[in-house]
Amino acid sequence: xxxxxxxxALTLGDPAGIGPDITLLAFxxxxxxxxxxxxxxxDPDVLAARARALGLDVKIEMIGDPREALSRFASAxxxxxxxxxxxxxxxxxxxxxxxxxxxxxxxxxxxxxGGAASAVVTNxxxxxxxxxxxxxxxxxxxxxxxxxxxxxxxxxxxxxxxxLKVVPVTTHIALKEVAGALSKERIVKTLAITAREVxxxxxxARPRIAIAGLNPHAGEDGTMGREEIDIIMPAIEAARLQGxxxxxxxxxxxxxxxxxxKGYDVAVAMYHDQALIPVKTLAFDTGVNVTLGxxxxxxxxxxxxxxxxxxxxxxxxxxxxxxLRLANAIQRNADAGP
Length: 338
Prior knowledge:
Blueprint: E1 8-11, H1 19-28, H2 30-33, E2 38-42, H3 44-54, E3 60-62, H4 69-72, E4 77-81, H5 98-113, E5 120-121, H6 127-132, H7 140-147, E6 156-160, E7 165-168, H8 178-181, H9 184-202, E8 208-212, H10 227-241, E9 245-250, H11 258-261, E10 266-269, H12 272-283, E11 288-292, E12 298-301, H13 318-336
Parallel strand pairs: 1-2, 1-5, 2-4, 3-4, 5-12, 7-10, 8-9, 8-10
Antiparallel strand pairs: 6-7, 6-11, 11-12
Helix pairs in contact: 1-3, 9-10
């Protein structure tokens, strides 16, 4: 039995956010939406309390091994227990929950790497809450890389939604630090990981990669900045020498409209918002975050904890359902091989 014949491992996320809500809603919609079997790695009492608050009649069943989820999923939401310390109040995050949030991620990765689950799907976390509790990583991507024994630059964040795949070279850093963080080597490495994983996960033999410039009008021949000339173009040339199918640098303000999107399989942007704004504009409710470069599949809803919606019944499970379905699909592609 390969990984694709096993359930997904879904992390707890911040229990005060909408993670419990959308987990319950995704399970409730499993038949209508085609949601593949998953096991939540989290606190069953938190789920039960949120189900009562939302008026959802969902049976929650504790299991010891995620593989039990395959036989239980038709009738109950399977949970591998990771208990949260302290009271959980929807919409009010607490640093006391941080250890359980971290353990949920660690345990999910261990289960997948040990062969008990097929892929990791992560519910949203509060980076601020985790940081205050001593979490030493900017976000999920860097933490997952560390759990896999990789360097932070070995894991690449890709956003997928509505005929668009886009990768930011830099992620969770201040905008004023972006230019200094870019280098020819970093861009080439990102391009190589992107090409390899898009081919493996999505079956695209030689992905066409469009590269955005950093500055307005891609620098306008150096009149609006020299990063395109000094860093990005040399990276493109080096990537082409490696056999990658890359073009650019393109002006970011014209790279994402419908007609241009037909000309590439994935876009590579220089910083976080340059990549995420088009995806969230086109597919706010169904966008998915996929981590490339890991020795296991990881996806996540492309949204945050939405604390104001937690426990209100107004949270949408569509992005989580999309993340669960995509994790299942790309794991099957990865298992199938070339």
